[in-house]
Design a protein that fits this description.
Helices cover 52% and strands 12% of the residues. By secondary structure, it is mainly alpha-helical. The protein has a three-stranded mixed beta sheet.
Amino acid sequence: MAANPQQAPLSGLARALVQAGHLKQADAEALLIQAAASGTSFIAQAANAKKMTALQIAAFASETFGYPLFDLGAFDDAHIPANAIDRKLIGTHKVIPLHKRGNRLTIATADPTNLRALDEIRFQTSMAVDPVVVEEPKLLPIVAKLSSSAEETLKNIASLN
């Protein structure tokens, strides 16, 4: 199977889904292009195109990459450790801290192949990071809530000057 030189090779979750036979190469490439064009994630694009549900993608990622699958619907976001991760990182990488114990931080993510996010969190917190996989539609509202509270704080500080 020769790769088209004009197209970047698939990486991360898209590649794993193709290798496991859940998506065709052409479908995965099209979904990545559509996601980039619309400013959404690959997972959201795949779910919107009805290729797989968010739960199927999360279960696949959990099983394939060996991270626990966690239902955010059963989690009270009041228990999110305050200031565990910079709110900008939460918004940028679409992750949330779930639990902090000693030098370990449990992070909820829809895409455990986003190693850049895990590395940045590790670097910023100087803690070991334990990812758990969650469904993206359950993750995004919490990310938005945490990110918007940071934006509101900045706006309030700016309005005081």
